[in-house]
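Sample entry copied in:
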Amino acid sequence: MRSNTVIWWLLVGFFFFIDIVYTGWNILAHPDLPWYEGVEWVGSVALLFGGFMSTMIGFYISRVHKAQGGELPEDRLTADIDDGDPEMGEFSPWSWWPLVLAFSVALGAIALAVGTWMLPIGLGVFVVAIVGWVFEYYRGYFAR
């Protein structure tokens, strides 16, 4: 986790440094224009926002690292595989409801592209899929 934090803070410095170099280079490349017209604003703002986004991620990762009070299991050389294996929950490998749910979302996306008359159909299939998935264990395994 410490190495991730260092990498993100290095990216912050890189983006801000490259933003200054990029903006300065554009100003120097157009000496006949005023400085505000010589700047290529899209690239300068994109690099600046890249630095801001890297700052947010670096700050978040450093806060998480400080709050957890130690290194992650994958960062320790003496860690076993089971140390980093969290409980992921209960999943039904035989369930068909995720496929129906994906079909309903695809139907809704197609409705936005082709015709909005298909949107209520996709919404209806979505409601059926969500209710079916939530109440899958209500009647027992493999119940219809």
In short: The chain has two domains: 2-76, 97-134.
